[in-house]
Specification:
- By secondary structure, this protein is mostly helical.
- It is built from 36 helices and ten strands.
Length: about 675
């Protein structure tokens, strides 16, 4: 019972909460003004207008009535909306007029005109005291409120360059507005097609906070998918005689709330993914353009139909430093999910036993506990796993990156997806994400998104590393078992492993997060992520045959971090990351330089340890590494001189960085290289 669950409205409300969260407003504890389309008997409008007790519904209309309440009391009006919702087939005409604030009222759309009070004129920011119903509804759509909530049927907003015919909804031609005329700060699209895509883009371009209808109301579709898959599972149970139909129905009813929570989870994560992309909108533009071109070449995307910007329009945005709007990014996110799902389904990845844990999470807990074996043998297991992995990748902001890595490395999608999963689990990112997502209003939204983007960067680096360092099919379970304990050990002891310059950077970042409201534990976990760039190489060196009996992971880490600090490699890496990119080839070249620099650090670490440099104590390691650099490496003075030149440059180019990284790779004499 979707209306009983209120699942579609609840999903759209997660989008609303995210938009307001980014304005520093808590919709569940602070009053805010709303205009809407629909009435309390409707699923989306009715359920939506009961999702916060702090709603101040100023105006609404449906196909029968216009409701006006210029200065509503949140508690009183909430109770009356609840009463109407509970009355079958109620209308706005059933609203207790004694509870409406001064100057308000309920008017039939069939009236010739409506005389408006000063209070209504003020609330809607209009001057005239009398309007035809169509004019009044047009004014409601333009009202300067906090939230514009669509729970009705019809298209009410178009782009200013579109005709009413383009909206394909003749019934509302007389009241429809342009996107640039909508003055609400936030739009929630619980209903379908309430705004054209050009209208959404126009709203976003003018500062409105808006997604798309398919993002906001996706929980309803998700709920239907869950229902089908759960009924397939329980159908097999009933057919085998392990459950009666009556017991099945009771079980379904008992799981309703948890199924709703599972569906809302995707709404929450999709909104976070769009916010993560939005925080780096301008920087993401080139990669997004390449993804669009790739989809077009494959015949999977038509930018004209989806109203995504042309290459010429993207060039203009590049000049102005603007990226895709949120509605445009939402379209690309949707294409990322659908294409990734289809491509993963065509691989052997969904058959991997490793994903039994993931497929179990798709189902409510009672089913996990009772029917683990049946879940593993679900007839749509492959489809569920492919959906789960595609959602996991795209919801963490990696849709564009997956496309990039395929082009850069030539690796199969299955191998890249497995590398993603290994990185996610080896770096224990699932619990970290949960902690970041759980942050309340004491932490600003931009800080929360910055933390999530830091985790995303770790995913990108780790996935790239595992793709490059593994040959053929990755053994997921064995690889995670090999890396996760050692990476956790490095993270737990990071303060005592870093050289002084790195420790200063770490502590400064931690202090910034704590000042923003994060707990010291979470702040340290997130701030430590950039310092784990070399973690996989550290583990590889520590577990190499040459190190058998020669010390543990922490010893290797101390030497590695000391070398990084002494040779200023973190700074050099930062210059690579901020170098200008004018083409796909620049991007690929810079990625190759990062990989080359990481490989050089690994070789230097192995050589230093082989030469007897101790990693038992951080301070001693720094001294011994300094001595070893002076005694064993060649061209160090030349390298440091190059760094000074790069530092003096306003913005170092690819050629300068290429030379510097090349010199790092030649610091080890060939006689030493041959021994590692």
């Amino acid at each position: 019972d979707h209306k009983g669950m209120g699942i579609t409205a609840k999903g759209a409300w997660e989008s609303v909460k995210r938009h307001f969260r980014e304005m520093g407003i808590d919709t569940q504890s602070e009053p805010f003004t709303v205009v809407g389309i629909g009435d309390m008997s409707g699923d989306v409008f009715g359920n939506g207008m009961l999702l916060s007790e702090h709603i101040r519904l100023v105006a609404a209309f449906d196909h029968r009535h216009i409701f006006l309440d210029p200065d509503p009391d949140p508690a009183t009006s909430f109770a009356e909306r609840q009463r109407l919702f509970d009355v079958p087939r109620s209308s706005w005409d059933d609203y207790d007029r004694n509870l409406i604030s001064r100057g308000g009222g309920i008017f039939p759309r069939s009236a010739k005109s409506v005389t408006l009070s000063p209070e209504i004129c003020k609330a809607l920011d209009i001057e005239t005291g009398e309007m035809a119903p169509m004019e009044l509804m047009n004014a409601i759509l333009k009202a300067p409120v906090d939230l514009w909530w669509n729970g009705g049927i019809g298209t009410y907003v178009k782009g200013s360059g579109e005709s009413h015919a383009d909206a394909q909804d003749r019934a509302n031609d007389g009241l429809r507005i342009d996107g640039c005329e909508l003055r609400a700060r936030v739009v929630g699209e619980g209903g379908n097609l309430g705004i054209t895509q050009r209208g959404r883009i126009e709203i976003a371009t003018n500062g409105g906070r808006i997604n798309t209808d398919f993002i906001d109301n996706s929980a309803g579709v998700d709920c239907s998918d869950h229902e089908v898959n759960i009924k397939i599972l329980l159908g097999d149970v009933v057919a085998s005689g392990d459950m009666t139909m009556k017991q099945r129905d009771v079980q379904l009813a008992e799981m309703t709330d948890e199924v709703g929570e599972l569906c809302l989870r995707d709404n929450i994560l999709q909104n976070l993914a769009l916010s993560m992309t939005g925080a780096r909108a301008a920087a993401m533009l080139d990669a997004q353009q390449r993804m669009m071109r790739k989809l077009e070449r494959a015949g999977r995307l038509d930018r004209r139909i989806e109203l995504l910007p042309t290459d010429g329009e993207l060039a203009e945005r590049r000049q102005t430093g603007t990226g895709l709007t949120r509605p445009e990014a939402a379209v690309l996110l949707a294409y990322g999910k659908t294409t990734l799902y289809a491509d993963l389904l065509a691989t052997g990845l969904p058959d991997r036993e490793y994903f039994l844990v993931d497929i179990a999470k798709y189902f409510p807990r009672p089913l996990r506990r009772r029917f683990q074996e049946r879940i593993a043998g679900h007839r749509l297991r492959r489809e569920i796993v492919a959906t789960w992995i595609a959602n996991s990748i795209v919801n963490r902001g990696l849709d564009v990156f997956m496309s990039e890595l395929e082009d850069e490395t030539g690796a199969e999608l299955e191998q890249i997806a497995m590398a993603y999963v290994v990185t996610r689990d080896s770096f224990a990112l699932l619990p970290l994400w949960s902690d970041i997502e759980a942050l309340g209003f004491d932490v600003p939204s931009d800080q929360q998104i910055a933390m999530l983007n830091e985790a995303r960067d770790t995913l990108v680096r780790g996935t790239r590393w595992f793709v490059a360092q593994t040959v053929g099919r990755i053994s997921l379970r064995e690889t995670v078992a090999r890396f996760r304990p050692s990476i956790a050990e490095i993270m737990e002891n990071l303060d005592g492993l870093l050289a002084r310059p790195q420790a200063i950077i770490l502590n400064g970042t931690v202090a910034g997060y704590v000042e923003a409201g994060a707990t010291p534990e979470l702040a340290r976990a997130v701030a430590g992520l950039p310092h784990l760039l070399a973690a996989c190489d550290i583990v590889t060196v520590a577990q190499s045959p040459e190190r058998a009996g020669g010390g543990d992971t922490l010893d290797v880490a101390r030497v590695c971090f000391a070398l990084d600090a002494q040779l200023n490699l973190t700074w050099l890496r930062s210059q690579i990351q901020r170098a200008p990119i004018t083409s796909r080839w620049d991007r690929m070249a810079l990625s190759a330089l990062e990989d080359e620099l990481a490989e050089s650090l690994r070789q230097l670490t192995a050589a230093a340890l082989a030469a007897g440099v101790s990693g038992e104590d951080t301070q001693a390691s720094e001294s011994e590494v300094d001595r070893w650099i002076g005694e064993s490496l060649v061209s160090v003075d030349r390298y440091r001189a190059l760094l000074e030149e790069i530092e003096a440059a306003e913005r170092p180019d690819l050629a300068m960085l290429n030379v510097a990284v090349g010199v790092v790779g030649k610091l080890l004499p060939r006689t030493v290289m041959s021994k590692i």
